[in-house]
Amino acid sequence: MNHILSFAEFLTPEVNKVLGGIFGVLIVVTLAFYIAKGIKGPTKLINELIERTLSWWMILVGFAVTIFFSRFFATIALGFVAFVAFRELTSRLNLRLSDRRTLLWCYLSIPFQFFLAYIEWYGMFIIFIPVIMFIGLNMRSVAQGDVKGITASLGIIHWASMLTIFSLSHIAYMLSLPEIPGFTAGNGAMVLWLVLITESNDIFQFTWGKLFGKHKILPSVSPNKTVEGFVGGLISTIALGYGLAFLLPVGAEKAAILAGVMAFTGFMGDVTVSAIKRDLGIKDMGSSIPGHGGVMDRIDSLAFNSMVCFHLIRYWL
Amino acid sequence: MRLFARFVLYRLILRPFLSIIIGVKFPKASDFPEGQFLLVSNHNSHLDTVSLLCSLPVKRLKDVHPAAAADYFARNKTMATLCEFFLNTVFVRRKGEGGKPIKPLDELDMHIKDGKSLILFPEGTRGMPEEIVDFKCGAAVLLQRNPGVQLVPVFMIGMGKAMPKGDGMLIPTECEIRIGKSTINDEIRSKSVTELTQHIQNEVLGLRT
């Protein structure tokens, strides 16, 4: 009951400082775009940038309000995001009508997985989707008796569970970790570092690529990704991760290493979802966030990074 | 009383549930034209009628009526009363009683003459998801007999996967209701019934992509 009623649980001075900084940057950017619109008039590019920025406001306010005030509501909110992302994926991935009961099992596994994260039962949390649900999903699909196309369905459904439910539940578990001696920033700070580094890496890669991009890194998957963008992003992300190391309990050097690893795995998550969208011939996985596509389009790199960040920190502790 | 019950059911309960949990994307209320209309849509699921009623502008909940087969939805009295109360249905008899021939279109025509707007599923039945069977000619006949009534073509995506025929289990699946603007004018209206039916079907299918 204590946890449910607690208020501003993760708003430590460190977190407040960084959150304030992020909102400051966003205010400056928003003002700059509106001023540009006032001077040059409403062009298509400016309107698109403003739409994106307003969505960033929505995402950031939603993120700050749900994650840092109470662990209980943060867990529910993360579970809901995983639910929407899973629904987006499975709606588009050409599943069969006979897979509907298997999907129902996956939907029922979401509250259970996040409950395990909430009560910090690590042993069960870490095997529930990869082992228990893995066997359960196969069992349920086979029991349905429709074998035509079952190989693809089994693969798709378990992959989607891992990418959305399992990965995002790591963020919920990160909030539940027991107190670390001598670390005052709190568990919310670790989540803030994870999300900030992941999203910044996307933005850094995009910006470096726009400025200096020449050599395409994966032309058949994502024509906008360049070697220059990737390397520029990697270096900037390591610098930012090092600078914000006070949000992590592992020290500045390890924070820099972690940021470097995450620049790579975030890139992998991004291009994996891009590859699947290209396979399906669609531009966005959904349309729930104006200017950003669906939830899955926004959390593609976070899906990989949440697992990487959680397990490396846990290994170093 | 009925209207209030429907408002509570559709706007306050079903619409939030369908959009947040199931993932139905509703159209804007302004996509529906003012005045009397004949709404024509593909049909894959029992969700279709409910989602259409959820997307109607509140003030139209009174005069928009889905047409339902009497032999299925009015097979007993309780069912018929419930359908009329909550879904606002008008029943169409497909089979005559005691060998008397029946003209279902005349009954629908009568409802339109009363000023009602109707929802029709001209495929006749719920088919497999995302598969369309050829439209029946009823909508075309009704449009020709009532020149003042507008056509509203609607295409629904995903409903048959969220709740297919013969399976009552609802599974969250992203669905969308797309409302088109009809290009029907007096010239097209005066063509043959077959051609007009084909035109209506093309307008509905044109919303697919």
Largest interface: A-B, 15 and 12 residues
Largest sheet of chain A: none
Low-confidence stretches of chain A: none
Strand composition percent of chain A:
under 5%
Adjacency order of strands in the biggest sheet of chain B: 1-7-6-2-5-3-4
Strand content of chain B: 15-25%
Number of helices of chain A: 11
Measure the end-to-end span of chain B.
Answer: 40 Å
Give the helix/strand class of chain A: mainly alpha
Question: What is the overall silhouette of chain A?
Answer: globular
Quick structural summary:
The complex is a heterodimer of chains A (317) and B (209). Chain A is mostly helical.
Keywords:
heterodimer; A: mainly alpha; 77% helix; B: 209 residues; alpha/beta; globular
Overview of the molecule:
The complex is a heterodimer of chains A (about 325) and B (about 210). Helix content of chain A is about 75%, strand content about 0%. Chain A contains eleven helices and no strands. The longest helix of chain A has 29 residues. The two termini of chain A are about 30 Å apart. The mean pLDDT of chain A is about 90. Chain B has about 210 residues and is an alpha/beta fold. In chain B, strands 1-7-6-2-5-3-4 form a seven-stranded mixed beta sheet, sandwiched between helices. Chain B is globular and about 45 Å long. Chains A and B meet through helix 4 and helix 5 of A and loops of B.
What are the SSEs and their pairings?
The complex is a heterodimer of chains A (317) and B (209).
Chain A: H1 2-5, H2 13-40, H3 44-69, H4 71-92, H5 100-118, H6 122-144, H7 150-176, H8 187-212, H9 227-243, H10 252-280, H11 295-316
Chain B: H1 2-22, E1 24-25, E2 37-41, H2 47-55, E3 64-69, H3 70-73, H4 77-87, E4 90-92, H5 104-113, E5 117-120, H6 138-145, E6 150-157, H7 159-162, E7 175-179, H8 186-189, H9 193-205
Parallel strand pairs in B: 1-7, 2-5, 2-6, 3-4, 3-5
Antiparallel strand pairs in B: 6-7
Helix pairs in contact in B: 1-2, 5-6, 6-9
